[in-house]
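Help needed: design a sequence for this.
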C-alpha cells in the first residue's frame, strides 16, 4: 500500500511539474536566443544585452519571488475548499503586480546612474539604457503574467503556461529578426530591438494566460469574474507577508552566484569563460528540480489546506526525492562526459581544460542544489518563508561567500576555491531547510493530535462518560 501510494504521488508531482520544467527551459531559451542574435550583430550589441540583463534581472527575480506567494495561498484555499476566496485572491495578486511594476518601471529607466558608478564602457551605455527603456514597458505584463501563472500553478494547472511560453519563444525569434535586423518594414534597432521584442512577447504571453484563466470552465466555481474588486490590503498584505521573505530568499541565492562571478572576473579571460560555461550548464539542469519544487509547493499547500500535515510531509519528501534523483543523474553526466558538455560551448583548449575542472565542482553541488530547492518548495507550500530566508542568509552570506573568498582569493585556490564556497553554502541551506520542514510537519501534527484527544475527552465528559464525576 505504501509503495502504491508513493508511486501515485510521484506520478502526480511529475504530471504537475513536467510542464513547469518545460516552461522554465523555454523562458531560458528566450534569453539564449537574445544572446545569440545580438552576438551576430556586433560585440557592442552583445555587451549591451549582457549588461542590461544583469542590471534588471535582480529586480525581476525579487518581484517574481514575491508574486510566487500566490501559489501556496491558492493551493491551501483549494485544499480547504474555500472556492470564493480563490477568485478574490487572483485579483488582489494582479493589483499587487501592478503596484510593484510602477516603481520598477522608473527604476530601470534610471540605470544609467548605476552604470556610471560601475564604470561601464561609455560606448555601450546608450545602447544598454535604450535596451532597458524598452524592457521597462514589459514590467506590467511580466508581473501580471507571473501572478496568473502562480495562480494556475496553485491549482496544479501548469500546461497553459508551457503552451504560452512556447508561443512566446516563436514570437521572440520573429520579433528579434524584425526589430534587431530591420525586416518586415521595421527599422534596424540592434540590441534595443531585442528589448522591444521581449516586451512584445511578454504582453502576448500575459494576455494569453489571462484569457485562459478567465474563460476556463473548471474555474467557474471560483467565481473569478464576481471576485473583481478594488485593492484590499488585507489580501495584499497576506501575499506580501509570505512573498517578501521569499523574494529576499531567492535574491540572496542569486546574489551569491552573481558575486562569485564578479570575483572570478579578476582571474583572467579563460577562467571567466570557463566559469560561464560551467554555471550556464548547471543553471539549465537546475530548471528540472526548480520546476518540480513549484509542483511540490502546490501539492503540499493543497494537503495543508485540507488540514493533513502527515500527507503534506509525505508529499514534500516525494518532491525532495524526485529533485535529488534528477540531480544525481545530471551529476553523473557531468562526472562522466565533461569534455562533451564543454565542447558544445567552445573549442578553445585552455577554456576546455578549466571548464572541465569546474564541471566537477558543479557535479558535486548538484545534489545539494536539488535538495535545497525541493524542500524550499515544500516549505512555501506551508507558507513558511521567514525562517528559510534567515537560513539562506546564514548559508550563503555567512558561510558560502566567506569560505569561497578565503579559499579562492586569500589562499590562492582561484575559481576552484570560490566554487567550494558555493558547494558549502548550498549544502548548509539544504540541511537547514530539511530540518525546518521536518520540524514544522511533525510538531504541528502532534499539536493537532493532542488538541483532538482533549476535545474527544471533553466531549466524553459532557455526554456522561464514566470519567465524569458528575455523571449519574
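Sure. Designed sequence:
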Amino acid at each position: 500500500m505504501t509503495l502504491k501510494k508513493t508511486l501515485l504521488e510521484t506520478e502526480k508531482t511529475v504530471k504537475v511539474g513536467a510542464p513547469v520544467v518545460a516552461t522554465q527551459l523555454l523562458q531560458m531559451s528566450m534569453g539564449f536566443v537574445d544572446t545569440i542574435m545580438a552576438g551576430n550583430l556586433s560585440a557592442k550589441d552583445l555587451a549591451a544585452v549582457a549588461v542590461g540583463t544583469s542590471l534588471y534581472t535582480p529586480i525581476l527575480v525579487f518581484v517574481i519571488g514575491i508574486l510566487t506567494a500566490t501559489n501556496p495561498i491558492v493551493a491551501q484555499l483549494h485544499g480547504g475548499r474555500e472556492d470564493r476566496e480563490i477568485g478574490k485572491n487572483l485579483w488582489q495578486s494582479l493589483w499587487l503586480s501592478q503596484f510593484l511594476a510602477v516603481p520598477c518601471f522608473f527604476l530601470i529607466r534610471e540605470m544609467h546612474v548605476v552604470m556610471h558608478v560601475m564604470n561601464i564602457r561609455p560606448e555601450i551605455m546608450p545602447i544598454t539604457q535604450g535596451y532597458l527603456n524598452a524592457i521597462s514597458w514589459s514590467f506590467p505584463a511580466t508581473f501580471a503574467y507571473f501572478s496568473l501563472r502562480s495562480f494556475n500553478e496553485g491549482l496544479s494547472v501548469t500546461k497553459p503556461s508551457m503552451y504560452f511560453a512556447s508561443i512566446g519563444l516563436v514570437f521572440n525569434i520573429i520579433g528579434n529578426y524584425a526589430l534587431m535586423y530591420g525586416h518586415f518594414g521595421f527599422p534596424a534597432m540592434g540590441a534595443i530591438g531585442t528589448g522591444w521584442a521581449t516586451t512584445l512577447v511578454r504582453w502576448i504571453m500575459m494576455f494569453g494566460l489571462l484569457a485562459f484563466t478567465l474563460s476556463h470552465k473548471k474555474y467557474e466555481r471560483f467565481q473569478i469574474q464576481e471576485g473583481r474588486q478594488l485593492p484590499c490590503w488585507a489580501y495584499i498584505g497576506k501575499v506580501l507577508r509570505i512573498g517578501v521573505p521569499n523574494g529576499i530568499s531567492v535574491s540572496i541565492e542569486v546574489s551569491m552566484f552573481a558575486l562569485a562571478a564578479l570575483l572570478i572576473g579578476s582571474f583572467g579571460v579563460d577562467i571567466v569563460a570557463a566559469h560561464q560555461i560551467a554555471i550556464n550548464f548547471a543553471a539549465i539542469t537546475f530548471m528540472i528540480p526548480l520546476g518540480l519544487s513549484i509542483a511540490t509547493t502546490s501539492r503540499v499547500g493543497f494537503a495543508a489546506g485540507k488540514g493533513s500535515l502527515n500527507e503534506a510531509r509525505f508529499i514534500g519528501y516525494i518532491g525532495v526525492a524526485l529533485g535529488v534523483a534528477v540531480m544525481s543523474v545530471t551529476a553523473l553526466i557531468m562526472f562522466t562526459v565533461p569534455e562533451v558538455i564543454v565542447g558544445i560551448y567552445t573549442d578553445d583548449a585552455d577554456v576546455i581544460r578549466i571548464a572541465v575542472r569546474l564541471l566537477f565542482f558543479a557535479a558535486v553541488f548538484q545534489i545539494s542544489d536539488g535538495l535545497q530547492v525541493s524542500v524550499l518548495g515544500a516549505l512555501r507550500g506551508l507558507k513558511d518563508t521567514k525562517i528559510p530566508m534567515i537560513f539562506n542568509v546564514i548559508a550563503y552570506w555567512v558561510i558560502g561567500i566567506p569560505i569561497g573568498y578565503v579559499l579562492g582569493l586569500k589562499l590562492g585556490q582561484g575559481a576552484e576555491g570560490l566554487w567550494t564556497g558555493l558547494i558549502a553554502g548550498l549544502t548548509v541551506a539544504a540541511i537547514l531547510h530539511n530540518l525546518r520542514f521536518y520540524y514544522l510537519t511533525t510538531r504541528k501534527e502532534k499539536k493537532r493530535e493532542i488538541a483532538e484527544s482533549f476535545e474527544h475527552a471533553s466531549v466524553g465528559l459532557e455526554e456522561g462518560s464514566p470519567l465524569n464525576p458528575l455523571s449519574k
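Residues 248-451 form one domain.
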